[in-house]
Structure prediction request, 637 residues.
Amino acid sequence: MPPPAPAERDLRLDLFRGIALWLIFLDHIPSNVVSWVTIRNYGFSDATEIFVFISGYTAAFVYGRAMRERGAVVAGAHILKRAWQVYVAHIFLFVIYLAEIAYVSRSFENPLYAEEMGIFDFLRQPDVTLLQALLLKFKPANMDVLPLYIVLLGGFAPFLWLLLRQPALALTISVLIYALSWQFGWNLPGYPDGSWVFNPFAWQLLFGFGAWCALGGADRLGPLVRSPVVTALAAAYLAFAFAIVMTWYFPRYGHFVPKFLSDWMYPIDKTNLDVLRFAHFLALAILTVRFIPRDWPFLKSPALRPAILCGQNSLEIFCLGVFLAFAAHFAMVEVSEAVAAQAIVSALGIAAMIAVARLITWYKTVEGRSPGSRSSRDADLAGGEA
Amino acid sequence: MTTFIIALLAVLAATAAAAGDNQACAVAAHFISPDHPLPRVKAAIADKRLDVVVVGSASSRLDGATDNQKAYPARLEAALAERLPGVAVKVVAYARPRETAALMAQQIERSLSADKPALVVWQTGTVEAMRRIDMDQFQAALEAGFAAAQSGKSDIILMNMQYSPRTETMIAVPPYAETMRFVALQHEVLLFDRFAVMRHWSELGTFDFVEATKKIDTAARVHDCIGRLLADLIVQAAMIRGSSAHNGKSP
Prediction:
């Protein structure tokens, strides 16, 4: 029997998804001094893992309930509608990207960059470029997360159906697909070359694991997570990852990494969600769950409210973040690249994300109060399933 | 992002000497450190004849300047000749636009038998980043090039991408640059970090990389500086201990 859905929303999810959205924004601004604070600089995994895991968790939480209450077909339709919304959002961002690249191609010229300006060749064949973008094959830099999410949602309904009946089997299948994708090099094709930067066959593991945790898996893992041995192992692994990452920044210490270890470890593959990255995320999650309880009073404090609001409106705020990263870089190039300017655009960007999240939450509240909109109140509780 | 690392690198890069006549170039010299020796170059210098092959894509050229005389391969030849009096220095460049690392690895193999250089300078990565070629493929191509140099009895220096602020949001350079750094580190190959050097120049205001211009002046100065820094790296790496002449393989 599936366990009953928890009545109250777990604010930790919103909090960490909100923080992940800020970190993704900061990481997407090239040459940004502020991005030194983001977790990717201190371990193997980065904010993408947090975002995908929590997205799987909330998707299962929201659509799992819908599937139990209204049946698989209706819930499946809801999931596909969400995938469609994400697709439209992605294409919208792509248009903004095209506008930027078209502007730069007309206004910028420099013999030093004859080679780099080849990136504007895409504009010479708008028919091909647009078609490949609509097919999710052509994806500009930093626009790879939403296509992953679209594909994950696209395949989510049958997985959720199985998860509600045979959670262990569903998780096993997820692990199996991950293993097979490594074994046989499965990935979706990209354009003009290569394949997807976030391999959906590999990254579905994190999404599926998040969904499994949401539907009772987390309770099953509870005793394990609380054991001191596991906590110690997680802490030790984080320390190990930190030490390894430091040798990347200070290559002179690289020789402290034994040859057999570096041969086995490198490259740490982000595209295919390297096991080391997955384990790093798990270690982070274990320590987080252990030291930040669900009813942690600070979760209700005004200081954390901005991050929670961003996490509750994640699709909108994610898209905004991608756009703001473009805009911030543009401002840095046009106006100033000074460290102070980088700090200012980073802070302004996060402030804009918070302001828009507040606005959307306000709007949802207003809508939810209007008569005949019970379902939108539910959606509000779900807080943006993306 | 860089100030922190710059400060530490400046301290750590004890061996980096700010050589070079041009002050402007030398401000980035601490990004260039001879971490690995170049035994064949050392032997070639001792034999008074140094042949270098540059294999690269369009950023190893400077079209518009006569015969690419202002591009860094030609500047490297001049700078090496200046630093190595009495040595016959020759630099041959194979730089073709849009060429991938996989094709360049084949070019390296051909040049090794045709030109018999003591050193190959391999500039690559930009085409891969623009076309978003699979990282596995890129890594395999790099390893093929290194293996070719190894079996052709030549030293090799890898050079990464240019720092290009205008196209930074459009070309995903960092993951490809990271792969180059890893593969170079694992195979004990010297990396000329052109990206870091140019970004440092940009931060210090040495060069303005966002200026829109048709003129070639700035580009020529940048290439000249890159040629000088590369010459410094080559000479330093050939002099460090461990560069025993006639050594069969890299130590």
Summary: Chain B touches chain A through 58 residues (CB under 8 Å). The beta strands of chain B are 49-56, 88-95, 119-123, 155-159, 190-192. Chain B has a mean pLDDT of 87. The radius of gyration of chain B is 17 Å.
